Amino acid sequence: MRPWLKIFLIGLALWAASVLVTIWTENSNLVPTVVLLGSFLVPVTFVVWAYTRERSSEVTVELLFKAFVIGGVLGVLGASILESYLQPSLVMYAGVGLIEEGVKLAALILLTRGLRRHDVWDGVVLGATVGFGFAAFESAGYAFNSMFTSEGLSVAQIVETEILRGVLAPVGHGLWTAIAGGVLFSAGGRLVGKVILAYLGVSLLHALWDSMSGLAIAITLLLTGQPWQFQLIRIGKVPGVTDGQIHLYTVLNWGGLIVISALALLWLRSISSRAR
Hints:
This protein is mainly α. The protein has ten helices and two strands. A two-stranded antiparallel ribbon has the order 1-2. The longest helix has 33 residues, at 243-275. The radius of gyration is 20 Å and the shape is globular.
């Protein structure tokens, strides 16, 4: 069995056991174990997979650790500070995309500035590692917040959050920063024009991903909205929706996420093909 798969399966079993024991014993001291195992399972699995793949001698265990932990922490701290200045608006998602992709790229540049060579595949791996580190710490925060409900602590909410973010993790932060890292290393680690364009491109993908739910609602209303629904919106009330609108929203939302992911994967494949 491959090392990364073995680690994933062991980690998944430990996380499932932690969830069951937490529910059975109602021991809140186990909640951090559930949160941390669930948040780091997929990101750590990727790092193990990346280390077993073809790479140059520049990509050491120490560098991968720094990229994951230091890059991830610097990313979430930087994003938290900068995003505190954003105000709710139509362009907020664009701001989030620019900020989060910017801090991850800055962390990658900082951590790899002393490398003697810049193989494109190394940039993909290190960029993805920074992105997965960011995703792991961010997911831990989301899972922690999700457990607080009006009815008290909810382990079920944590589990739902962890599963959803774990499934989507490979096509989120890790993928976007992998693209930026590959382009950065193709430019010798220098912040030149094509790197800036790649940064803007992944920021756009990020913004579209975050705003997909809102876009799906808007498109659904434009296509199927009834006069009474628009009247309620004008006076600041939330209108009821039909079953057909719910189904259309679901298709548009998940369809949009699939298209965004496919575009990013095709972009990464193009970069990786040139690297090989």
